[in-house]
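Researcher: Sequence of Aromatic ring-hydroxylating dioxygenase subunit alpha follows. Predict its structure.
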Amino acid sequence: MGSGRNGGPPVTELPYSASPVPNDWHRKGLPAWTYHSEALFALEREKLFLTHWQLAGHECDIPNPGDWLSFDLLGERAVIMRGADGVVRAFHNLCRHRGARVVDGDSGHCKGAIVCPFHGWVYNLDGTLRGAAKPSSFGAMQREDFGLKPIEMSLFHGFIFIRFTPGPQPAIAELLAPYDADFTAYRLGDLLPVQLPHWASDLAVNWKSVRDVDNEGYHVAMAHPALQELYGRTYRDLYLESGLNISHGYFGDAPGRGWSVRHYVKLSPPRADLPLHLQQAWTYYGLFPNTVIAMTPEGAQFYQDLPLSVGKTRLTGRLYRWAGETRQARAARYLAYRIDRETSAEDQQLSIWSNESMKSSAFEGFHLSDLEYGLRCHHDGLRTLLPVMTQADAPPEDRMAAANAELTCQSVAAP
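Model: Prediction complete. Tokens:
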């Protein structure tokens, strides 16, 4: 097996049980109305985003007792905190007195206790109530009844997943089992956050338009010259079960012409500790409905599309490096970031164009390539949860929830 410096990247079969693209399949996507219906967006909030696992960060983001991260989603607010006992827990970021945020910002540190900034109620780092301000003014209040409300949380190789209400996805360890071997090989427990690891930008599009672009690699050759030069010749998408997908490409079979690609290929550190299919590879691990974890030899990141409204989406994520990073690896990570930043700008423009077409009278729906089957898989997941999306014409907005409930009952009753 050769390397990029000796005849190209390693050539090996990928060890995933991927579903093949059917020979004949329905090539239409979701109808255009689903991208601008307020009533449908309300159903997406209730039955999709709040009931599915969301990635909030990594344990390395909160290394010390009292360190915390926040995570907001469609009216719900979470705080993830490391307790005095070292245990990571997730709570609703909501004081039990008047509902104020008990912490404010993306991240921070509470020294010994959480103090609500509204009236000064004090909580222990494990979420239990230590005491209310002027406790005698509340009568016979039992402190044990007023701790911060917990949120379901699970860890997977250090990544922190939460969901606000129970939903159809299984436990994280079961759901992400196909990724376990790769994540073990990458030693994700050794990750460290980079300086200013959190990033976010808002885009005036429906969240599905962002996912439609990211869920297929057909556009890489035309729209992403840097990625095409880096690994486009070997890029492939694989579709797994349970809303998982993997996108994968090898680099190193060409020196690269663009400045960032050329120097990245030269500096990316060899990782002989990784299995062959991960050496000199950029790999993206997708989780339905809106999260991707990306790995390169010198760093890791996750990114996600968080809807703010039917026509506005927050693109956000966090960046990580490995402990013991060399100067060469740090330089390669910076170059990978430059390539990623350029790619993100290109994808954002594509998302804008795709989203605006949904209100055009000339738009007659998608006609998808086999190379866009990932987009179809994502749409199938949405249609399964919200069968109203199968309707070519939008139900009246005040009938949206009822129409979806009726179609759900029909699908359950069907043999």
